[in-house]
Amino acid sequence: MWLPSEHEKYGVVLASFRGTGQHGLPLEIGDTVQILEKCEGWYRGFILKNPNVKGIFPSSYIHLKNAHIKNKGQFETVVPEEDPVITEMTSTLREWGTMWKQLYVRNEGDLFHRLWHVMNEVLDLRRQVLVGHLTQDRMRDVKQHITARLDWGNEQLGLDLVPRKEFSMVDPDEISVTELYKLMEQRHRRKEAPTPPTVHHLLVQVKSLVSCSLAEELQVCFSIYDSRDGRPLSERFFVRLNKHGMPKSPERAERQCTLFTDLGSGDLRKDVYIVAHIIRIGRMGAGEKKNVSSVQYRRPFGCAVICIADLLTADSRDDHNLKVYTCNTESEWYQIHDNIIRKTSSRYSLLGSSTGLSISLQLLHGDMEQIRREYMTLFTCGITITRKLGFSDIIMPGEMRNDLYITLEKGEFEKGGKSVARNVEVTIYVLDMDGQIIKGSLWEGSGEPGADSFQSIVLYHNNSPRWAEQVKLPLPVDTFRGSHVRFEFRHCSTKEKGEKKLFGFSFIPLMQEDGRTLPDGTHDLIVHKCEENANLHDCCRYLKLPFSKASSLPGNPQAAKSSKESFCITSYLCSTKLTQNGDMLDLLKWRAHPDRVGDSLSKLMEIDGSEIVKFLQDTLDSLFGILDENPQRFGLKVFDCLVHIINLLQDSKFQHFKPVMDTYIESHFAGALSYRDLIKVLKWYVDRIIDAERQQHIQQVLKATEYIFKYIIQSRRLYALATGGQGEDEFRCCMRELFMSLRFFLSQDGKAASPVTQTQAIFLKNFPAMYCELLKIFTVCEVAGFVRDTLGSLPITSQADCPLEAVKLQCIAKTVESQLYANPESRCILLPVVLHHLQVHLQEQRDLVMCAQVLSSVLSITMRDNTDLSSAEVVSAIVRSLLGVLLVTILEVTNRPQPAGTAMRLQFQDVTGEFVACLLALLRQMTDRHYQQLLEGFASKDELKDFLLQIFTVFRILIRPEMFPKDWTVMRLVTNNVIITTVLYLSDALRKNFLNEGFDYKVWDSYFYLSVIFINQPCLQLESFSPTKRKRIVEKYGDMRVMMGCEIFSMWQNLGQHKLNFIPAMIGPFLEVTLVPQQDLRNVMIPIFHDMMDWEQRRSGNFKQVEAKLIDKLDSLMSEGKGDETYRELFNSIIPLFGPYPSLLKKIERETWRESGVSLVATVTRLMERLLDYRDCMKVGEVDGKKIGCTVSLLNFYKTELNKEEMYIRYIHKLYDLHLKAQNYTEAAYTLLLYDELLEWSERPLREFLNYPMQTEWQRKEAMHLSIIQNFDRGKCWENGIILCRELADQYEAYYDYRNLSKMRMMEASLYDKIMGQQRLEPEFFRVGFYGKKFPFFLRNKEFVCRGHDYERLEAFQQRMLNEFPQAITMQHVNQPDDTISQAEAQYLQIYAVSPIAETQDVLARDNVSDNIKSFYKVNHIWRFRYDRPFHKGTKDKENEFKSLWVERTTLTLVQSLPGISRWFEVEKREVMEVSPLENAIEVIENKNLQLRTLITQCQARQMHNINPLTMCLNGVIDAAVNGGLTRYQEAFFVKDYVASHPEDCEKIGRLRELMLEQAHILGYGLAVHEKFVPQDMRPLHKKLVDQFHLMKSSLGIQDCPPYLPFANGSPRTYMGSMVNAVSPDGGRGVMRRGPSTLSYPAANRYSSSSLSSQASNEVSNITGQSESSDEVFNMQPSPSTSSLSSNHSASPNVSSSAPSSTRGSPLSSEMNKHSRESSCLSPRDRPCSAIYSNPLDPTQRILPHPMGDVMLPRSDPSLSAPDKGSPTQTLRSLSPVPIRTSPQKSSVPPFTPSPTECQSGGLVSNSPALSGSYSSGISSLSRCSMSDASGLEAPPPGELALPSMLTASASGGSDELLRRDSKTPPPYSVYERTNPRRLVPLPHGLSVLPGVDPPALPPKPSQIRGTKLDLDPRRAEQVPRPRPLPRKVSQL
Fold it and tell me: Which residue has the higher pLDDT, 1428 or 1748?
């Protein structure tokens, strides 16, 4: 039976549990669980990180832990009873673990590894804490280290700042908001601006002396030197180096490094250096030969320096190689470092370019205890400590030092009878009073042990040496008395014996006879002659002699004996026990000299403070001893001395001695009678303050009042203890009189700068320190009365700049923080005066910082004592006095201008945060009664209104993101909790006082605005937080957004008819609220829109305002990242919401206006779909097709459905920017044309908009035109740019702006030059299908055709699409997908290449038009695309596959033509037809015939620089035909069985026979042309071709070949019905025309191959089984069969343009292999002019409208009328050498599509008779007869001849064509009207010509087209009307 668990509430999982059983809860090791129930070894509960999932698990898997239960019951929570630091570590590490893995995913390796190390470190520290074996100090250090690491990690990961107190997290509910703010601010200050350390230490490690070639040992002496004062700052550090320059003892690392300690911040200057003196230990001369003597001397070697300021920026140990210098003369050795620093280069020189001292330096910061903790390894190995000379900046009471420093300065010695100067060495000894040498008393420096003696350096031949060497004498205090230092002088001989001969000595005692130590300074010592060491053994002999010249007597003969010689030293004492001051000794021994007490007291003020603090206790005993014995005489002086000492301890250098004085007062002070004299003297000074002219001394007295009162109180306590409380009344009377004097003195109202005011300020600073002392004798109420009366006596009206004001508040602040205010009784006494002063200052906006601190302290104390009944009264008093003025103050402070660059208002100097915390603390402490009293306390509604407006405004300020730093989430949540609580109280007042008759819009608007921004603030968006953080917030505060949303709904319902006041103003804010991703909030707020629509419908009869505002705001909000798919579904849902709230649609459907309402919801839903897609696409970094496509979709939606002109234009420019970024210049130009179309050439002024300045419409349109022309130019779409140039030129000409007209004409000319002179790459086109529900709405289950990039093949395009959609799956077939694919929750891409079908045929049909011109029309303005797929129908004949090989032809029609405003457009229509094997064979041969004609024509016209393409083409066709290529067709289609089974194909069979014969005749003519131009070395190949050609004719059954067929312009024409050209292939121009053929076979394929060639010999091999012919060389690249969807083939550059070959086909490789044989029968897809350009229109898409008949299409001038161009066709039939049987094509039989090569040189025959004669060449007429959709005419009967006059007309036409070609005038660059009038081309009317007009042969002049706009849209004539069209003009945009 399951029972609720009582004690088992919390546990940790010990082992993972799968939970596979029924109700099992899966657990992982380390999870924490909360247990709800238990039953026989099982628990039921949940994992704390996922409380929504509950289940059962074994109890043996759980380790139980003690926990504290909160809210026991259904909603109980458990808190582990463990160290809070451990709890925080555990939760933090869990959170870090998840984020740490994400760092790896995001490739943030540096932070990943650093965080890993920190996590391991925290885990190790956690183990140490859990073990519990640490000492208290160590535990504190570990916790401090843990919290520091946790804070670092949180900061690096962007987590919240954690408020802590004593290393533990603080619960915000348990402390005041003001305390919470202080904690947050302190931690933020510590993080942002760490306190700079005041103590520094320098770590020095010596490595070696580089390139040292001496064979002698070295001694390196380091010190820190102050070049400004010319003195060392530290002791010396010595390191000994061996003969190789390496450390002498490398195994002892501590001997090679030292720590220079106690450097102050003032020592880190640019003029402070590290100086290294290098001493050589060896012979006298460095170059001397090694002699027998073993005597060694200390000789100068070199010096190096480095500035200490250079180390300030280094965080780690840096290696330095210091240059070593030597002095030029040894006499300058003592100042070589100064010379180097001052760069006096004449006195020193570089020791060697390669010589350097290698050391490492590091500057450490913090006190020694901190350094020992952070660098433990340094101290465990015993690093050498080098101390600072003298005391540090701060002297600690326990510090013990007793060091005497002696520096050898200089000496003056006689030659001693020698011709040269001496080599003087000084030896130092320290001797005690017995004359014994004190062992180890001389220290050269740190790093070396103490020695018995010290030898100085020896300066060669120098009688006036200057050494500047320092030694330290660390002697015990008792050793100083009687000890002395002896200096022995010896001459060091340079002879072989190397003896050192004594010649004199000096000495100096360490302590004088009166007990004073050797004074600091320079001592000029007497040099006593002495030549025997024995004379120095008895020190009593010479100690009686004078030791210095200052102490010698004039008549002393011994002194006179050595007066010429002298020796100078400098001494410096650093001792905490010895003194050099005689006045101090006199005071301490005052009883021995009573007569000198007065002088001693007077001189005490002149003694150095360090001397006083050394003997602080003894000095105080002496002072109070003197006071007790003679108070009348010395009372005032003792008081002054006491004041001096007390003020001395205020100095930062001696402030640490205050505890020493406190200890003295509590434990050692014995002046029981002193209080009377101290009170008396203090009152005497206070009474004279007002009359005193000089206030300085009195101010010093008042500064010491704290300790004076301590002495007074302690003295009184001692007296009362000794006498049993006698004199109590007298004491109280004296104290009252003293306070009366103080109050009188404080009540004086002086000027701001008056001395009295300054004295008042000084007293107030020290006054709060007296409270604790007074409480030792007086009661709490008595002391509170003293303080109240004293503070109340302060002057009320003071000047603003008076320093007393700030001090007054400081005094009040200290009073509030004191022990006195903590008592509830005294608090009631003090609170009125505190509030009074605060109110005055806040009203006058003075001293706001101190006001905030005082109020913060008051509220904090009130929060701590909130259980006391008096706390409620305190809160009431604060609310009455300060709430209103506090709101005003916050408004004033926040409106102040902030300093530049402060992104976050860190409240260091700005007090906004302090006042905000005070306000929040006050509001949180207010109860229902307080709010009731507050609201009832307003005298009128106006006052209440002002209050509500103020507090709502303040709340909006508090919600601002910049109010608190980003990581102060805890503070923000507390703020929001207080705000929502207060708003709930105030909303009642709003309903009661400002509704119905008293309705006030301003108050209600402020309320709604506050509510909206409250809900939308980032810190409440729980969805963006981690699960742990979200759970923590919800448990503590709930979802405050839902609470506020419910309150908004409730208040809205109460408004009634006043709702109209907020329509449409509140639509946007409420919409923003509903976009918050919180289901409950949305359910509450969405129905409000129904209310708005309903009330607007009542008022206006419609809700257009609601609709407009809703749509406008939706775009901006969703662009900011708000809203999601769930919201879209919810908005459009008809499912009822929770509770009483039905869905929006449900409510709308009940209304009379439901149709328009449902329409609005649908429109908004569709807009949201597009906006969501747009936002998702824009998140990607680079510009891709998805971004552009989504923008196009949204742009069109605004235009067609919403008619939002401004939004439409905005998205035009967004799309334009995307195109520019992607370098889609052509698309960018088309996009900008959309805006250009909305403008007119008018002078209407336009406002500033987007990046456009304020200008006229004409100016903006001009700028648009220029920009569009520029983009067309960059996109190489020059034809469109020319038309815009013409339009702009017309405007310039109309305004007589000839300068710009000239520029425009030159620009137009340059575009013509670029057309003819530059090559253009022809793009590939790809069909892309997007299937699956995971695609965006604008792509989902749709197919598009995309215009590829330059050089982009199918494989590259597929990879690009997969990069844009990385989750997509590529479909490996081209079949249409079924519903399982389209409805799948996935992404499927289907991609294959398609061929364009060119719309414009007139330009392409003209032979004399350059390929550079044609290339534009082949791939521009394309609406339709085609794709062929081969398949076998029926039984496949293995011997001849052509019989059953069919082609499935798919034609795709787009909604807009390419190129346009996008690189891809959606497919609007898909049509599929099947091409029979016979029709495919016809297409194959037609394409090859066209290719042959083109090559022959180019060769004749000398357009080919090389005849090889023609050679290879001929070779490929003839060789393939000979080896059975055409024979296969004969076998398949010319046999009786096929004819009998397919009687409907008789005409097609005839057509195939005609084409085969035609090909034979074209080949014959081609061989003739080839023979004329073939070079000599290729004659054998030509002969072979002729022979093979005869074999080919034989195989085809052609017994006799007629003369070469006529060619227009020298090229062969169709054999059927053509007139024979009487001129031979060498250039005859006689032309005969024939009528169009009965059948039309439009070209469809894009490849330049035929059935016999072109695909190299692939097809030939497939047909005949032979190897590939040389035709492959012509094709340059292998071309796969048409069964493949991709091709790598490109035409020869001699035949085609330079555009890259396209890739066409299916991605399925298996289909390629499967259809390898079938591909030979498909129409070849290579084109003679370009392998990339489009095919003509598919005839299956058209109905042949013309009746059958004999019509002649003559070649003539286009200016002739149609009847003039026609002639009877009977004249042509007689010339047909072979009678051909033809019959009309049946409409039921689908015609065939010719190859794209025909499209290039042929054009469409228009339905209009006016266009019927616009074709010029024979080749174009051939292609025309096969391509035209209007050429359904019969072929002429054989045997009929043409009229002779036609020869003349045709010849005339040909000459005209020649003339036009020679003049190189380009054809018009416009797209003519299509016959299909279904849709609108996305081209402006400015790029169009009038529909239905015969296109001129030459481009029209501007004068001819002025006033008529060109139209590039061939289908604009018949547009399908769109719903809600966009207005023609732009209002002011």
Answer: 1428
- The residue written with tokens 């096969």 in the block is 1826
Dihedral sign for Cα atoms in the order 1614, 1620, 1623, 1626:
positive
Taking CB atoms within 8 Å and a gap of at least 24, the contacts of 660-663 are 660/397, 660/613, 660/616, 660/617, 661/616, 661/620, 661/707, 662/710
Which of these, 1421, 1389, 1391, 1416, lies nearest to 1404 by C-alpha position?
1416
Q: Phi and psi (nearest 5°) for 424? A: -90, 130
Listed residue (36, 105, 27) closest to 60, CA to CA: 27
Alpha-carbon gap, residue 1371 to 1386, rounded angstroms: 12
Tokens describing residue 1077: 């991703």
CA separation for the pair 1832, 1805 (Å, rounded)? 11
DSSP character for 1198?
Answer: I
Q: 1315, 1412 in Cβ contact below 8 A?
A: yes
Closest CA to 653 of 262, 158, 1062, 1174: 262
Residue 1521 — pLDDT band, cuts 50, 70, 90? low
d(CA 1363, CA 1353): 15
* Residues 1198 and 1208 sit within 8 Å (Cβ to Cβ): yes
CA distances from 1393 to 1324, 1356, 1430, 1461, 1741 (A): 8, 12, 15, 21, 20
Question: Contact at 8 Å (CB) between 1628 and 1621?
Answer: yes
Distances (CA, A) of 620 to 601, 641, 643, 1627, 1682: 12, 9, 11, 135, 115
Residue 617 has pLDDT above 60, yes or no: yes
Q: What is the DSSP letter of 1024?
A: G
Q: Is 1602 helix (H, G, I), strand (E, B) or coil?
A: coil
Assess contact for 299 and 458: CB atoms under 8 A. yes
Residue 1407 or 207, more confident: 207
How far is the CA of 1307 from the CAs of 1132, 1281, 1612, in angstroms? 54, 9, 41
Measured CA to CA, the distance from residue 543 to residue 563 in angstroms comes to 18
* Tens-digit pLDDT profile for residues 1658-1693: 333 333 333 333 333 333 333 333 333 333 333 333
Q: Do the Cβ atoms of 401 and 573 come closer than 8 Å?
A: no
219: part of which helix (H) or strand (E)? strand 217-226
Upstream peptide bond of 768 is cis (omega within 30 degrees of 0): no
Beta-carbon contacts of 1587 under 8 Å, excluding residues fewer than 6 positions away, are none
Which residues have a Cβ under 8 Å from the Cβ of 543 and sit 6 or more positions away?
484, 507, 509
Q: How far apart are CA 1825 and CA 1736, in angstroms?
A: 13
As beta bridge partners, residue 1395 has 1426
pLDDT in tens, 1313-1368: 999 988 888 899 999 999 999 998 888 999 999 999 988 999 999 999 998 889 99
- How far is it, in rounded angstroms, from Cα 59 to Cα 45? 11
DSSP string, 588-627: HTTTT-GGGHHHHHHHHTTS-HHHHHHTHHHHHHHHHHHH
What pLDDT shows up at residue 290?
57
| Full-model pTM | 0.63
CB-based contacts of 489, cutoff 8 Å, min separation 6: 411, 413, 424, 425, 426, 502, 503, 504, 505, 506, 527, 567
Contact 1793, 1644 (CB under 8 A): yes
**Which positions ≥6 away from 1085 have C-beta within 8 Å?**
1045, 1048, 1049, 1070, 1073, 1074
Q: What is the DSSP letter of 1780?
A: -
> Looking at the predicted structure, is the pLDDT value of residue 1803 above 80?
no
The per-residue pLDDT for range 632-676, each reduced to its tens digit, is 778 888 888 999 888 888 887 787 788 888 888 888 888 888 888
Pairing of strands 1342-1347, 1464-1475: antiparallel
Q: Distance of CA 82 to CAs 76, 91, 121, 293, Å?
A: 19, 13, 20, 77
Q: In terms of residues, how long is the chain?
A: 1933
Of 31-40, 802-811, 1137-1146, 1648-1657, the poorest mean pLDDT is in: 1648-1657
